Amino acid sequence: MGTRSMQHRPGIHHLAPHAVKYKKKNKKNGQIKQGGTMSPEKKMSLDPLMMAGTTSLTSASLTLPIPSPLTSPPPITSPPMPSPLNTGHILKAALTNPSEVAHFRQKLDNTVSSTRERVMPYPVAQAMIRMLIDCDDFEDIATLKNLDDLLDHKSDLSTKLCQLGDSISIKLVQWTKRLPFYQELPVEVHTSLLTHKWHELLVLTTSAYQAIYGLQKLGSRSSDGTEAEFHQEVSNNLCTLQTCLNSMMGRPITMDQLRQEVGVMVEKITHVTLALRKIKIQIEEYVCLKVIAMLNQPRSGHKELEVIQERYMNCLRSFCETHYPSQPSRYQDLLVRLPDIQAAAAKLLETKMLYVPFLLNSTINR
Fold this sequence. Notes:
Layout: H1 3-7, E1 37-39, E2 42-43, E3 54-58, E4 63-67, H2 87-96, H3 101-111, H4 122-134, H5 138-142, H6 147-151, H7 157-178, H8 187-217, H9 227-249, H10 255-278, H11 283-295, H12 303-323, H13 330-335, H14 338-351, H15 356-360
Antiparallel strand pairs: 1-2, 3-4
């Protein structure tokens, strides 16, 4: 994007690449309707089939062929463990009727003492979680390695943002192909999952990274969840974003303008981050929650998704009960974060400013 073009566009919403024609969101299920291009030479497609060793991943902002891996990890063969109360009920309630969550929590509390032997043994859960950690390039997905290039207003911004979209796509597809259960699902199912869930995975990954490593930056201070803390954190994030956007655009952006155009999105992302920071989410919980979020496809028609999702919900539950016996609601507290993640991701998709979560993480130095 040239300097002359920016001077004639006073808002910051145009920081999404002009060559991109974004798809409209289906109000019923948040799916992305087919149509639009990443650039004139990159056609968007919902075709999930493997063609000439590539996979086509479609989202609201990116489609590109991804080379197939030379090898795929073997699938997990252990069957899902039975649960005294279908944990899927909690997740369903959290996503559709949050008022019912307390009801399911109470039922779990009443039954868990007599059914602990039915929970997935922790050594099994530990091994499965370790495999998820090994295949998750947490820092690589949650941060930008070429941040200085993105902030340099002298180079073409539209090209850089298209490259960022390509990078997000590549990293998520590569992560998917490393998952232990990759071979258990058809390629078209994996494609559909990423098509519908990539923005949720992006928000969860960047927010969890901020919650875990941003907390280290702040020392031992933990989130108290107060309204004052929330507003202070939103203010800090807007200041960080303002500094970055001033550099990207080569001209000052007022705080009023910033609040008007991205204030709600920043608030929703900040809410997710503070919630994860308050509970002091661990990397083990993050990788489980990420898989659970991706596999959450109501009315998908694929029983395999429910089986695999239940498997990792039991993993998460086993981890929480083993490491946090004094927090009996921790497992449910993590699951009920998913609606907040969905809301933040929907706002991110609406604004098309996919770089914002990365800019918010730009102040973290590990």
